[in-house]
Amino acid sequence: MSNSVHVYDARADHATVTAESPLAYSFQRSGMPASGEASGEASGEKSRAVIGERAFLGHLILRGGAIVLDEALREVLGVGLPGRPNSLTVDADGQRSVQWLSPDEWLLIVPGDETFGLETRLRAHLGGAHVAIVDVSAGQTLIELSGEAAHEVLMKSTVYDVDPHAFTVGKGVTTLFAKTNVILRRPDASRWELIVRRSFADYVYRWLLDAGEEYGIGVARESRHEPQ
Amino acid sequence: MFHIYCPYCEELREEEEFHPKGEAHIARPEEPEACSDEEWGDYLFFRDNPRGIHHEMWLHAVGCRKFFNITRNTVSYEILETYKMGEQPTVGAEHLAREEKTASVQAAEGGQQTVGASDAALASVKGAQA
After folding, report:
1. Strands A88-90, A97-102: parallel, antiparallel or unpaired by DSSP?
2. Domain ranges of chain A
3. What pLDDT is attached to residue B114?
4. Cα dihedral: A172, A173, A178, A180 (round 10)
5. CATH homologous superfamily for B3-129?
6. Neighboring chain A residues of B9 at a CB cutoff of 8 Å
7. Which residues of B touch A85 (CB under 8 A)?
8. Does A162 contact chain B (CB < 8 Å)?
9. How far off is chain B from A227, nearest CA to CA, in Å?
């Protein structure tokens, strides 16, 4: 039964601890080149690729039977599980997404402050069903890549075919990126998302800065100030 | 690099994402306690190393992280099929025997003798699977 599982709110909202994004130190140490977009700096040219971190989102791993989970998720969140391998469904306002990871595993990403409530409601709805829900929010972070040359930066880094015609909107895969694991996905036509392990976030960030140098890669500053 | 078809992801992926995990279809003895040391040793340590068709397990390590099976020609490295865990291969040693008959010239040119696909080898592979 679900009440035998100890569920607790992993977020420190109510605590006095200041949370740092996995890239906070990287931004200081490796710098944050201006994207030349938001600030409209006269000196810098417009970046052809822009990095942005969306930290402190809620990442939940759902495991179990597709039918049971799909039903619970539709009821609780109004979004169904993606039916096809390597696909992604995003809700109407683009804030919540479910991605296929393997035949019995999905990644659910929601705004950070909804995580605990959602997990509780899912568990209540699933009752004693044979499923697992794991909050992995603290273990990974989401890096966004946008701009006209975003796919070219990706092409330099991953063996997967990221040609925009082959990697269509609504696709998401787990693959190798610069020798490390990433979940790579395309929620809409203008953005790519990379979900990386927290411990690899600095490495991936520095790789992106280096790989994107020729496209004048910049960092979107506003995106890291997520309300905590 | 190979492109390997993952039956769970339902698409071709780079070889880099996979790990080979050895011979497939090895059944654990029903009653380990009743096994002789030799039988248990065979089950645990001894693997076939055929020249020709080999059914083996692979892991899609960077991807869906599922095990699946590959039928591979150890001479040409050709991957003949991939199939999910729990399924049976549709390609066996008779595939080689057939290919040997139809494409004997090519085989000779490529310097690949499909000796392993003789009737005796075919029988032995079938015997091993049974």
Report:
1. antiparallel
2. 24-55+139-221, 58-137
3. 47
4. 120
5. Folate-binding superfamily (3.30.2270.10)
6. 85-86, 173
7. 8-11, 64
8. no
9. 32
Contact A159 B62 (CB under 8 A): no
Q: What is the pLDDT of residues A110-147, one digit of tens each?
A: 999 899 999 999 999 998 899 999 999 999 999 999 99
Letter for the amino acid at A35? S
Give me the pLDDT at residue B93, please.
77
Whether residue B62 and residue A181 make contact (CB cut-off 8 A), yes or no, is yes
Give yes or no for B87 touching A (CB within 8 A).
no
Q: Would you state the pLDDT for residue A222?
A: 59
d(CA A159, CA B62): 12
Contact A175 B64 (CB under 8 A): no
Chain A partners within 8 Å of B16 (Cβ): 159, 176
A176 has a chain B CB within 8 A of its CB: yes
Shortest distance, CA B129 to any CA of chain A (angstroms): 28
- Residue B118 scores a pLDDT above 60: no
At the fourth CATH level, the homologous superfamily of domain A24-55+139-221 is Probable tRNA modification gtpase trme; domain 1 (3.30.1360.120)
- Asked if A181 and A174 touch (Cβ cutoff 8 Å), the reply is yes
Tell me which of A60-69, B9-18, B113-122 is least confident: B113-122
B63/A103 touch (CB, cutoff 8 Å), yes or no: no
As a whole number, mean pLDDT of residues A69-80 equals 94
ipTM score = 0.86
Q: Residue A85 and residue B8: Cβ atoms within 8 Å?
A: yes
Cβ contacts of A88 on chain B, cutoff 8 Å: none
Note the CATH architecture for domain A58-137: 2-Layer Sandwich (3.30)
Written as six digits, the tokens of A104 are 């019995």
pLDDT grade for A83, boundaries at 50, 70 and 90: confident
What are the E-state strand segments in A46-179? 50-54, 58-63, 88-90, 97-102, 105-110, 132-135, 140-146, 172-177
Distance of CA A207 to the CA centre of its chain: 18
Q: How many CB pairs under 8 A join A and B?
A: 40
The average pLDDT across B44-62 equals 95
Look at residues B7, B124, B14, B130 and name the one whose alpha carbon lies nearest to residue B66: B7
